[in-house]
Design a protein that fits this description.
This protein has 434 residues and is of the alpha/beta class. It is built from 15 helices and eight strands. The structure holds fe (ii) ion (FE2).
């Protein structure tokens, strides 16, 4: 159906599925948490958050709202940035002990993803690795419905409140993997842009590029009709490829990034820009939750795997750490230069929506025009200059490629096929841009 991009192919899928939680969006809506939770008939909930938010104003609003609605709660805050499988096991044990009727998550993607993973283990037991696809994991199926989950994001990037995936670090493999199943989709999402008013500049920038790449990757992803036809109606993977629905959300999100990212990062008082970025993050989450990301996200996993001696200024983290949005954007200009030849019209459209100077540009210029615009945004928001800006050099490109090649599904969602050598070359081209 739809345009030429979705033209039917002989062995390709002939349908796509759309899923999203019930969403409430608007300033001040975090105050509605209690009443919205009560409407789910939950009287006792687990409140998941992180140690940095625990004593702050957002958790205070959530607690107050739950109390006013007559809902009792117990708090679990032992969640690290970029949560790992051990943290999820602790979360599941907490749910077991407290016998709650629903879970409320208040936090960024780390908190929401840890909550999703904990709900799975609480329901079905085992370890996170059991649920990863073979050969890495045990391929254990997620079958039963999970407890209701009310997700309240506190950053404008992750989109996790709108997706059925949980990204978790598996300690024994020392890298991140994804658990995906429709039942991981939160029941409700409360998107209150007010929560971003006090976010530091570097968090707005990093999460803004996460949302930017979610949207760009969805819009340039392989069409769903180019993915294999599914064997049964319930076997569809969340990475189903670009489709007419994800296109709508992605296009709008890209435009929001082009118009508001610089403003939102460089002027903390610009609430219009920050509100728009929050909405853009939700839209981009809806987009990638229904199509899947591709190479920038796949290659970011190699970066977070191998960031041995790297920490990022401005984050209260002692361990080696590169914020997710930074790990994604540092390779994006090189990647879109590379993928443009597969879908030049879509790349050019992305550049236009992002506010690039595309006067007179032709299909042959698509990758360059889009990359140039991304580089401009990176410079204007003080991002590192490629992977060399976060401590890698050309001696690391082989190891980075060897790590990222394990993200097979995301790599296959790119519009252009890539092998190990291609990934190594892309890391080389992403060393620096200016
Ligand atoms: Fe992301």
């Amino acid at each position: 159906m739809g345009c030429q991009y979705f033209a039917p192919s002989t062995h390709g899928a002939d349908s796509f599925t759309v899923a999203m939680p019930r969403l409430t969006v608007g300033r001040g809506t975090l105050h509605e948490l209690g009443e919205r939770t009560a409407a789910l008939s939950a009287k006792k909930v687990a409140l998941f958050t992180d140690p940095y938010l625990l004593d702050g104003p957002l958790v205070a609003i959530a607690k107050d709202s739950l109390k006013k609605a007559g809902i009792s709660f117990t708090i679990f805050s032992d969640i690290r940035v970029e949560p790992d499988d051990e943290c999820v096991s602790r979360g599941a044990a907490f749910l077991q002990q407290t016998a709650c009727e629903a879970l409320v998550s208040v936090g960024g993607g780390s908190v929401i993803d840890a909550a999703k993973g904990s709900l799975v283990l609480h329901n079905q037991g085992g370890r996170v690795i059991d649920y990863l696809a073979p050969p890495i994991g045990g391929g254990k199926a997620i079958t039963a419905p999970l407890l209701p989950h009310i997700a309240c994001p506190t950053t404008s990037g992750t989109g996790s409140e709108c997706t059925s995936i949980s990204v978790l670090r598996i300690n024994e493999l020392n890298t991140k993997f994804v658990i995906a199943h429709p039942s991981l989709l939160p029941t409700l999402a409360i998107v209150d842009p007010q929560v971003c008013d006090s976010l530091p500049v570097n968090a707005i920038a990093s999460t803004g590029f996460d949302l930017c790449c979610h949207a760009l990757e969805c819009y340039t992803a392989r069409a769903y009709t180019q993915h294999e036809k599914i064997a049964s109606p319930n076997s569809r993977q969340y990475i189903q490829g670009a489709n007419p629905f994800s296109d709508i959300a992605a296009r709008e999100a890209i435009q929001i990034v082009g118009q508001y990212l610089e403003r939102g990062v460089n002027d903390a008082s610009d609430t219009q820009a920050r509100d728009q970025l929050m909405w853009g993050a939700t839209l981009a989450g809806i987009a990638f939750g229904n199509s899947g990301t591709h190479l920038p996200h796949a290659m970011s996993y190699g970066i977070t795997h191998l960031m041995a001696d790297i920490t990022t200024k401005g984050y209260p983290v002692k361990d080696p750490f590169v914020p997710h949005g930074i790990s994604v954007i540092v390779t994006a200009p090189a990647i879109f230069r590379y993928t443009a030849e597969a879908t030049p019209t879509r790349h050019l459209e992305c550049a236009h929506l992002l506010g690039a100077d595309d006067k007179g540009a032709t299909a042959d210029d698509a990758g360059e025009v889009l990359s140039k615009r991304l580089i401009h945004l990176m410079k204007a928001t003080h991002m590192p200059n490629g992977i060399s800006g976060i401590g890698f050099d050309k001696t690391h490109t082989t190891a980075l490629a060897n790590s990222s090649i394990r993200q097979g599904r995301a790599i296959a969602n790119a519009p252009r096929d890539s092998n190990l050598v291609d990934l190594e070359n892309l890391y080389g081209k992403a060393l620096s841009y200016w």
